[in-house]
């Protein structure tokens, strides 16, 4: 017979769970990340300069009329740095102003398309058609309609970079997470409250993706506009230098365009980090 006075035997204990270590990012790791953010781009730049020198000076694979050696380009810049900086300033202003105008209009158009399916079906095909038109083909028409100077240049910037902003804004506003939308409805939030508290914050990362895509396009648009209608700027300088065979000056201007684009792009990245601090905390690069 079973002795009921004795307690039942305890079940065999299984293996204890192994605690999973949680990685912590300390000040040392943050400093290391900051150092890498500076050193790695510099290393890439040095590699590019080395390949450039190797192809143009050491091996002489590329003719100097096509791509001058780095020393010739540097000499062209140091011969008249004030001239280059003046044209760089003009191109930067045109790029930033055109980008801001296209950003404001692009976000407003994206809001309209996201808020009305009728408007989206009416105008999205037209926007796609406008974006598909080669912008360089519009240059002579812009000169005839707007004359020479900054107006056709700013118009070219606008035409070239507004579509990614429209698309990213409309996509972000129509891709609100279902749980957040349901939470807003359960709290009886008004349409404006749901937009301001839920839909817009959820769409901001996607909107910034469109802005970062559009920023380099704005620089390209400014240079294309200066090719055809500019009276100053780096594009205008390239046309002048190329017309007299001064390829060193032209390549110095091209390099300045690249540097300007890099600075403007990373300025936008810094703005995103300050405006959306929660994105880095709630996402992972894997």
UniProtKB/TrEMBL annotation:
Domain ABC transmembrane type-1: 88-272
Family membership: Belongs to the binding-protein-dependent transport system permease family.
Keyword Oxidoreductase listed: no
Compartments reported by the entry: Cell membrane
CDD domains: TM_PBP2 (cd06261)
Protein name: ABC transporter permease
Membrane topology: Multi-pass membrane protein
Transmembrane segments: 37-55, 96-114, 126-148, 154-181, 202-224, 250-271
Organism listed in the record: Streptomyces machairae
Pfam families, per the entry: BPD_transp_1 (PF00528)
Biased composition range(s): Pro residues: 1-24
């Amino acid at each position: 017979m079973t002795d009921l006075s004795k307690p039942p035997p305890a079940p065999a204990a299984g293996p204890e769970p192994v605690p999973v270590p949680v990685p912590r990012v300390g000040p040392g790791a943050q400093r290391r990340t900051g150092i890498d953010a500076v050193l790695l781009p510099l290393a890439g730049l040095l590699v590019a300069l080395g390949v450039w020198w190797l192809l143009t000076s050491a091996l002489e694979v590329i003719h100097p009329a096509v791509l001058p050696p780095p020393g010739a380009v540097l000499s062209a810049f140091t011969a008249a740095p004030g001239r280059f900086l003046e044209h760089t300033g003009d191109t930067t202003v045109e790029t930033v102003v055109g980008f801001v105008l296209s950003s404001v209009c692009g976000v407003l158009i994206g809001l309209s398309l996201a808020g009305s399916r009728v408007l989206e079906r009416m105008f999205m095909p037209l926007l796609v058609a406008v974006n598909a038109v080669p912008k360089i083909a519009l240059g002579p028409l812009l000169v005839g309609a707007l004359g020479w100077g900054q107006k056709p240049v700013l118009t070219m910037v606008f035409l070239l970079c507004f579509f990614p902003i429209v698309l990213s804004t409309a996509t972000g506003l129509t891709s609100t997470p279902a749980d957040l939308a349901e939470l807003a409805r359960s709290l009886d939030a008004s349409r404006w409250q749901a937009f301001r508290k839920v839909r817009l914050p959820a769409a901001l990362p996607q909107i910034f993706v469109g802005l970062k895509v559009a920023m380099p396009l704005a620089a390209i648009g400014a240079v294309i506009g200066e090719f055809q209608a500019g009276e100053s700027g780096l594009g205008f300088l390239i046309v002048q230098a190329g017309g007299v065979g001064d390829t060193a000056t032209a390549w110095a201007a091209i390099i300045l365009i690249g540097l300007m684009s890099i600075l403007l792009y990373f300025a936008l990245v810094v703005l995103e980090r300050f405006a959306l601090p929660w994105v880095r905390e709630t996402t992972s690069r894997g």
